[in-house]
Design a protein that fits this description.
368 residues; alpha+beta; five-stranded antiparallel β-sheet; 10 helices
């Protein structure tokens, strides 16, 4: 009897040593700590693929690179606030969005700051599926996984870690299908973050942009542009004096979607910096930026209107009045409408593209 008890004890001790892979274990404080350590261990880069510029991904230098704890990982950092919003960094701080600087800035964050600024998607395939000790290799490529294998996902949402969907494959054919299913699942997770930014207070956004050192806030105006009961905000920023080749004015539109959550639209080359912004006027679904001043030999009125079918703000009218003739000559005026320029979204508006239309109409008047 004693001998049997010793055998059972030995088996129990052996079983204790054979812990399941970390990817098979449920979420616990220990796993959460290791996930935060993972986020501060890998390098990051911004995405350049069209439609995927709104989040950051981890960088795997070579196909065989495996994380020592979680194996093959794919990480999507989904910015929630203005602090690391890639569109804001792209237009207001090119230095920070560079991979080395971005990685360092993220690695310096505490777990609490990571959870405040980002939601996170992680997919992981444990190291055991790359050893070749069992199963068949899915391809001849270096670093390919062996079947059967299992891929798990982790989600950080509003500071809470959870396990997402898991995917398994027993054959090469199933591995190909797994990839398609996993990508479809991933796209569903990241889609709600595109063009969206959490802003507790509009002043926080302007302060963040000013703190980046290249732009100053000119005006901030609030109104309900799409008439949905949510406050919307318009910001105008001009490049700071002393910045090399300062010439740009950037206009940002925050369109309220729910409490402290906004659709972020940026017109990065709205107009010339030396055009004096007089005021921003809102009326119903329309808003107009008016440019005029004592030393400005023209007046310009650029109006947009919310289009519920496009769920966006379209250029409605561009009025330009030439005052260069002074009091001795009559004012010359051009009013461009959608009949002249077609469909132009707010974020695509670029003043230089309309110069030839203005010049063309003035030329036609001179010939008459």
């Amino acid at each position: 009897m004693k001998k049997i008890s010793l055998i059972l004890l030995a088996l129990w001790l052996f079983a204790c040593k054979q812990t399941s892979p970390i990817t098979e274990q449920p979420i616990s404080p220990e796993i959460e700590a290791k996930l935060y350590e993972l986020l501060k261990r890998v390098p990051y880069t911004s995405n350049e693929y069209p439609g995927l510029e709104f989040f950051y991904s981890n960088v795997a230098d070579i196909p065989t690179h495996l994380d020592p704890v979680f194996g093959k990982v794919d990480i999507s950092l989904l910015p929630k606030t203005a602090e690391f919003n890639p569109y804001i960094l792209e237009y207001f701080s090119n230095d920070l969005i560079e991979s080395d600087h971005l990685t360092q800035a993220i690695h310096e964050l505490s777990p609490e700051e990571l959870a405040r600024y980002f939601d996170v998607y992680i997919s992981a395939i444990d190291n055991q599926y790359f050893t070749g000790e069992k199963g068949k290799k899915t391809s001849d490529e270096q670093g390919a996984v062996y079947v059967p294998f299992k891929q798990v996902t982790y989600l950080l949402k509003d500071g809470v870690w959870s396990k997402g969907a898991s995917f398994s494959a027993s054959t090469k054919e199933e591995a190909a299908t797994l990839m398609d299913n996993q990508i479809s699942y991933w796209k569903g997770i990241i889609a709600p973050y595109e063009d969206v930014c959490q802003v507790e207070n509009p002043n926080n956004l302007s302060q963040r942009i000013v703190s980046l050192g290249a732009y100053d806030l000119e005006q901030l105006h609030s109104c309900d542009l799409n008439e949905d009961g949510q406050e919307d905000y318009l910001f105008s920023f001009a490049e700071r004096e002393g910045v090399a080749e300062a010439h740009r004015r950037v206009v940002i539109l925050l369109s309220g979607e729910e409490m402290h959550k906004y659709r972020l639209l940026i017109a990065p080359n709205f107009c010339y910096k030396d055009w004096p912004l007089h005021r921003i006027v809102c009326k119903g679904a329309y808003f107009t930026l008016e440019f005029k001043g004592d030393n400005f030999v023209a007046e310009a009125y650029i109006s947009f209107k919310y289009n519920k079918y496009a769920n966006n703000f379209l250029l409605h009218r561009y009025g330009y009045i030439d005052l260069s003739g002074g009091d001795e000559e009559p004012k010359r005026e051009v009013q461009l409408t959608s009949k002249d320029f077609g469909e132009v979204f707010f974020q695509d508006f670029y003043i230089e593209e309309f110069d030839h239309m203005i010049d063309s109409q003035f030329s036609e008047e001179e010939e008459e």
